[in-house]
Design brief:
The structure is a homodimer of 385-residue chains. Chain A contains 15 helices and 17 strands. Chain A starts with a strand and ends with a helix. With 385 residues, chain A is an alpha/beta fold. Chain A is globular, with a radius of gyration of 21 Å. In chain A, the strands form 5 sheets. A 6-stranded parallel beta sheet of chain A has the order 4-15-14-13-12-11. In chain A, strands 1-2-3 form a 3-stranded antiparallel beta sheet. A 3-stranded parallel beta sheet of chain A has the order 5-6-7. Chain A has 2 domains: 261 residues, Queuine tRNA-ribosyltransferase-like (TIM Barrel, Alpha-Beta Barrel), CATH 3.20.20.105; 112 residues, no CATH class. At the A-B interface, helix 13 and helix 14 of A face helix 13 and helix 14 of B.
Chain lengths: 385, 385
């Protein structure tokens, strides 16, 4: 699958690449908005095109339960069903089924879990995961992995990792869809040794791409970056690297600098629906009453529909009045903010100026976060004096 | 204000006209989507332009309570606040304040009512209503009227009507905004005599346009059409006629045939958010399980974004999964359906074929409603045998 991915330029560890699929190309670094149930919440395909999104992630677990894999097949596959003619990655369903309140039993064969919709039991093996993903018809499928929660000892983390490796072989053995890439998932928690072992084992199986799973689960941020950096230095240079579930603006920029190509995260749209909007000076809550009369866009430098058309005061009003439009406009802005970060990263990697771009972005974005924290502390102290 | 409205063609009672405002022209018959709190629910201005909407209605009562008239003024008026640079009509707030659970007291001076947001008392006179509407800056303002509920005897209906006339004078006396038209509201319940008296009284005061209020409140449909027809035959031919709160597809077509130029109604977007979608063969509920696998648009003949992009099966899925996108896509379709009815009406009036268009549309739209009712009855009988 050397045709799948090409690296055009590197800048320190950061890479500018192109992922080629039968539904079009994806310039990397790329961010995948999450279309959990076959829809990016509050956002239509026309918005995604305008935002500059090139690839989406869909959740196999959710689609299997509703509308059902068979319905998506009858409707011509995910792309036709969603009216999204561009690249899609489906996850394996593993992460959702392993969520503690759903999982009933893990055996070597697979996972028995309870539907969050009707409570019914379902069984999910590496083979069913691949089969469902083949029917959904995405451009990239993921192997079924076992993701150990953060905070366990080494023994259960190793057990989950070893099973992940055995399941990866089973997924690769049965995967048989022309034009659909299959990515492995490196596990191993926050242990450098286990991570190296996991990467080595999976690399020997020659997958089309490698994901880093099991991070951003509560471990210290420095640990996240340490493991991501290790992966960036060891995973194959000619294959795409995908960091699962990471998507805050500062984490994205840090991890591009550590050699990651693809990201997914529901956070940008989730916080948007709660009124949290990204700016170069950190995240702001548009519901705050100080925005009641703010007659300017969220971000002057942003070219999204929301910033070009509406004041912060109007967005504040929409959130206060619980108008449905609020969720779309806020989601458009946060997604465009993240997509622009990807565009700027790609350009600066091509120009060899990524490090300067990164350092400048992070100092502005985080300094203000710190200021906000200080201001909040100040306020609290004044109240409690 | 002869420049405000021009009639280009008539076909029996139906009229094709043009309403000219400082924010652009409105071709009539026209339908105004309702932007209650300064936003058409689930729909942005870009959608409204694509749909072909030329004028919106905003509710003064809601905007006064939130975000407040003063904030809208500071943001440059309603058009700037909403990023809707086209014509707007504001209602007087009367209808909302008279709603039984809010109204505390009506006197000759005005209405004392309770806010539905925080329960605080507010007082609303003809003068405050006009003042607020002047500040909001819409192209068309409405006089404060008293709308008697359906089912009262003649005496309270006459009382409300007489007060409406006295308030209309006070509104006209104080109204003083260049470029903002002021429409009167004919009341009089379902009595032909009172309606004639109300129309005569208000016509003698020479308003810029005339609305018909107090209908579609539970009276028999034949009564609605009888009163609307009477108004269509008596209201000035050179002034716009606006039927308040009417907006089902069949009522719109009937009332265009009776001489109405402008309509508003929240129903098309409200039923859309509940999964009720207009088709030429009547309204369908897309949540019905028979649509689970329907791999075709809601309406093949519709040119809206929803019909051009998505199957009924996908819409069914979005509603079942409670995805926010469902509400936007359904609202786009229903609004476009109604706007297309207006376009077809205008064209057929110009061609002198409105009566044939109306009869054909109504026979299809209503026949299927009847079939649906028969099918439902059939089903009920089978169950209860």
């Amino acid at each position: 699958m050397s045709a799948l991915f090409q690296v055009q330029a590197t800048d320190c560890q950061a890479r500018k690449g192109t992922l080629s699929t039968s539904h079009g190309q994806v310039e990397t670094p790329a961010f995948m908005p999450v279309a959990t149930q076959g829809s990016v919440k509050a956002i239509a395909p026309d918005d995604l095109k305008t935002i500059g999104t090139s690839i989406l992630l869909c959740n196999t677990y959710h689609l299997m339960l509703r509308p059902g894999i068979e319905i998506v097949r009858e409707m011509g596959g995910l792309q036709a069903f969603m009216s999204w003619p561009s690249p899609i990655l489906t996850d394996s369903g593993g992460f959702q089924t392993f969520s503690l309140d759903r999982m009933k039993k893990v055996t070597e064969e697979g996972v028995l879990f309870r539907s969050h919709i009707d409570g019914r039991n379902h069984f999910w093996s590496p083979e069913t995961s691949v089969e469902y993903q083949e029917v959904l018809g995405a451009d990239i499928a993921m192997v079924l992995d076992e993701c150990a929660p953060y905070g366990l000892g080494e023994s259960p983390v190793r057990e989950a990792m070893d099973r992940t490796h055995r399941w990866a072989i089973r997924c690769k053995m049965i995967h048989n869809k022309q034009g659909q890439a299959l990515f492995a998932v490196v596990q191993g928690g926050i242990s450098q040794e286990l991570r190296l072992e996991s990467a080595d084992t999976l690399m020997s199986m020659d997958f089309d791409g490698y994901a880093v799973g099991g991070l951003s689960l509560g471990e210290p941020k420095a640990k996240t970056y340490e493991i991501v950096g290790l992966m960036g230095s060891i995973l194959p240079r000619d294959k795409p690297r995908y960091l699962m579930g990471v998507g805050s603006p500062d984490d994205l920029i840090e991890c591009i600098g550590l050699g990651i190509d693809i990201f997914d995260c529901a956070m940008p749209t989730r916080v948007a629906r709660n009124g949290g909007l990204f700016t170069n000076l950190g995240r702001v809550s548009v519901k705050n009453s100080r925005f009641r009369k703010e007659d300017k866009p969220i971000d002057w430098s942003c070219d999204c529909y929301t910033c070009k058309s509406f004041s912060v005061a109007y967005l504040h009003h929409l959130f206060k009045a619980k108008e449905l439009l609020a969720y779309r406009l806020a989601s458009i802005h946060n997604l465009r903010f993240v997509v622009r970060l990807m565009e700027h990263s790609r350009n600066s990697i091509l120009e060899g100026t990524f490090t300067a771009f990164r350092d400048n972005f992070l100092s502005e974005y985080r300094a203000t976060d710190e200021n906000v924290r200080l201001a909040q502390k100040e306020k609290w102290l004044r109240r409690h004096r």
